[in-house]
């Protein structure tokens, strides 16, 4: 998995990229948790998401937001981080012009950034949102949500209580034309320390279902 360097608005963006083997390989962008809470592209959940897409033939990219690792710049309260994500998706698309599908996956703060990116990139075919911080940020921008996807949450999450996520899911499910799968893993916390196998199981099952419906 070669390291890559992208050029963003704040300077260098450090990433890890795994190209798919097929010319029309789909693309997936993986977004990491909050930089101010120790979030980085090697977070276990982010890495697991990366591998799940990679194993299915996607050209997959994960990266450090500005100010994290070797990425230049400083934390920008989500505004600059969304710009970083857009830069990363631009890079993925430029390097995979024949990509058959486009997916965005994020964990915690990365899920928030990912959902915002969806609104700006209607070409996105699907998303994975793990532990979206719906009590910390306003998710009302998802009107309408442009793509179907999976929202995965821990039943024992005390950082973002499950009821807060259910509120957003219920609103999204009123929209026509998209399907929101929502799974709550009993006993899992916001950090998934003991429940990474559950993340793998849920995301794998969802991806395989979607890819069967719309093969690569």
Describe the structure.
With 216 residues, the protein is α/β, with parallel strands linked by helices. It is 32% helix and 22% strand. It contains 5 helices and 8 strands, in the order βββαβαβαββαβα. It has helices at residues 44-54, 79-95, 109-120, 162-172, 196-213, and strands at 3-8, 11-18, 27-31, 59-63, 102-107, 126-130, 148-154, 180-185. It has an 8-stranded mixed β-sheet with strand order 1-2-4-3-5-6-7-8, with helices on both faces. α3 links the parallel β5 (102-107) and β6 (126-130). α1 (44-54) runs parallel beside α5 (196-213) and α2 (79-95) packs across α3 (109-120). The longest helix has 18 residues, at 196-213. The protein is globular and about 40 Å long. The protein starts with a strand and ends with a helix. The mean pLDDT is 97.
């Amino acid at each position: 998995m070669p390291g890559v360097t992208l050029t963003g608005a704040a300077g260098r963006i450090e990433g890890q990229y795994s190209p798919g083997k097929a010319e029309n390989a789909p693309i997936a962008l993986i977004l990491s948790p909050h930089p101010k809470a120790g979030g980085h592209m090697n977070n276990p959940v982010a890495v697991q998401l990366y591998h799940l897409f990679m194993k299915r033939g996607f050209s997959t990219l994960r990266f450090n937001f500005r100010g994290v690792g070797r990425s230049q710049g400083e934390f920008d309260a989500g505004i600059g981080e969304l710009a970083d994500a857009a830069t990363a998706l631009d890079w993925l698309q430029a390097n995979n012009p024949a990509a058959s599908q486009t997916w965005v996956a994020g964990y915690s703060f990365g899920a928030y950034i990912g959902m915002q990116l969806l609104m700006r990139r209607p070409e996105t075919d699907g998303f994975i949102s793990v532990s979206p911080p719906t009590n910390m940020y306003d998710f009302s921008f998802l009107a309408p949500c442009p793509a179907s996807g999976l929202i995965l949450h821990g039943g024992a999450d005390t950082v973002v209580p499950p009821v807060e996520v259910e509120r957003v899911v219920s609103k999204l499910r009123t929209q026509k034309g998209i399907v929101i799968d929502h799974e709550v893993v009993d006993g899992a916390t916001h950090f998934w320390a003991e429940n990474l196998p559950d993340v793998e199981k849920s995301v794998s099952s969802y991806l395989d279902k979607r890819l069967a419906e719309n093969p690569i």
